[in-house]
Amino acid sequence: MRSSPLEGWSGAGVVSGEIMVITKFITKSCVVPELESKSKPDAIKELTHLLFEKKKMKNVAVALDQVMARETTESTGIGNGIAVPHARVPGMKNLSCAVGRVTGGMDFLAVDRKPVHIIFLICYPPSQQTTYLNFVATVAKLLSDKEHFNALVNAKDEEEIFQILEDLSETYDASHDSAIKAMKTDPELKNVEYGHTDMLLLARLQLHEEMLATAKSGKRKIKERIEGIRSMVDPRILKHYDKLMKSRVPALVPVEGDTCQGCFMRLPSKFVQQVRNDEAHIHTCVNCSRYIYVV
Known about the structure:
Layout: E1 31-32, H1 40-53, H2 60-73, E2 77-79, E3 82-83, E4 86-88, E5 96-106, E6 116-124, H3 129-142, H4 146-154, H5 158-185, H6 187-190, H7 197-214, H8 219-230, H9 235-247, E7 252-256, E8 259-260, H10 269-277, E9 283-284, E10 291-294
Parallel strand pairs: 1-5, 3-6, 4-6, 7-10
Antiparallel strand pairs: 2-3, 5-6, 7-8, 9-10
Helix pairs in contact: 1-2, 4-5, 7-8
């Protein structure tokens, strides 16, 4: 069985602990309780056009090309009945997601070879890489629970689907802040679920700064969270992060296929493996000095 390109996002890892309220990026009008499409390409096209029709993006052709190109590289059917086709789309101001359900299941060439029932099609601007990563991490974590997944499959309409997603992510988001604080005082928690504490805090910090940049309301609460997170980060790590954010945004980026997604330079495979295996230290790209993690 093939491994998922998103394997680990709902378990240990930098972004895996980052729970967000995903319905901030989904509107009820972008939830389809039963897709008309019967195939993977048609489903992707239907959901991409829905985002365009709801004015979430301007260039549907570019978005569709990007999503389909990603699928030819590796399927985004991550297993357990879920697919997360996605694309980085220049010109967008904020991440947007369309959700489609296929009650009877659809062949999506998923990693577990099982039919996909829930599709989250995600389009996002290049400036929201962290937001996108944590959006997918949240989806993977929330729906790894079979009870949650079944609730979505059996929901009666788009309003109930939306409400289930909102309730689940708000519950996890509320409990996550206390978990982060616990990591700073309980060494037993440090490597069990969340990996390196300061790296996780940086991921959460960068996520909230991206959210603040596009928020239309709730800025005060976001700023308070940012200050709270900053107070918990090691000052030396925070100093380098702040320096990067002035000249090389984003400061924290993933490594995909041995390539840093900040400078897009290839890294030595041996070094990437070291980063993957060493959760006790924070690592930086040897080319651009950004903080990095491997997905």
